[in-house]
């Protein structure tokens, strides 16, 4: 064996030994916690469930449907950004900027007002009163975007 191979083998062995020892220590700690805190894991006979099985199943179905729609939205958003990047790589910067600005406009015109209305309904109003620094930053970004699009 070459000296380099032996050194790499020693390092790999040392790393594996360290992982074995550290994981063994963590397993022992977990077993000790289970012994000392066993009252947290005992099922109490007289404890009533907070919701019924039918309600839990209904909520599970509703949450699954919501996650499905969210996943579809995120995939389409990722596809849009991937399209923008691939178009930019082909030196069609105007088209890439138009895709990006179009996405931003959709968010500004739909998502932000939706969040404001949702905030009103749940009793947590969202203020669109920005500080002066944020307002100037927004103005500069709008002017820069306008310059790039034209």
UniProtKB/TrEMBL annotation:
Phylogenetic lineage: Eukaryota, Fungi, Fungi incertae sedis, Mucoromycota, Glomeromycotina
BP-aspect Gene Ontology terms: intracellular calcium ion homeostasis
Record's keyword annotation contains Ion transport: yes
Descriptive protein name: 6608_t:CDS:1
Keyword annotations of the record: Ion transport, Membrane, Transmembrane, Transmembrane helix, Transport
Family: Belongs to the Ca(2+):cation antiporter (CaCA) (TC 2.A.19) family.
InterPro entries (UniProt xref): CaH_exchang, NaCa_Exmemb, NCX_ion-bd_dom_sf
Keyword Transport: yes
Record's bilayer topology term: Multi-pass membrane protein
Localization in the cell: Endomembrane system
Gene Ontology molecular functions: calcium:proton antiporter activity
Chief location of this protein within or outside the cell: membrane
Signal sequence segment: none
GO cellular component: endomembrane system; fungal-type vacuole membrane
């Amino acid at each position: 064996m070459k000296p380099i191979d032996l050194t790499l083998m020693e390092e790999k062995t040392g790393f594996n030994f360290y992982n074995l020892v550290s994981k063994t220590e963590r397993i022992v700690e977990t077993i000790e916690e289970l012994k000392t805190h066993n009252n947290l894991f005992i099922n109490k006979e007289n404890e009533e469930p907070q919701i019924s099985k039918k309600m839990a199943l209904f909520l599970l179905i509703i949450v699954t449907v919501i996650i499905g729609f969210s996943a579809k939205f995120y995939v389409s958003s990722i596809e849009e950004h991937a399209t923008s990047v691939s178009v930019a790589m082909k030196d069609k910067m105007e088209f890439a900027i138009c895709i990006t600005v179009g996405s931003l406009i959709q968010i500004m015109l739909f998502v932000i007002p939706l969040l404001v209305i949702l905030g009103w309904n749940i009793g947590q109003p969202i203020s669109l009163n920005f500080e002066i620094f944020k307002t100037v930053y927004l103005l500069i970004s709008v002017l820069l975007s306008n310059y790039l699009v034209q």
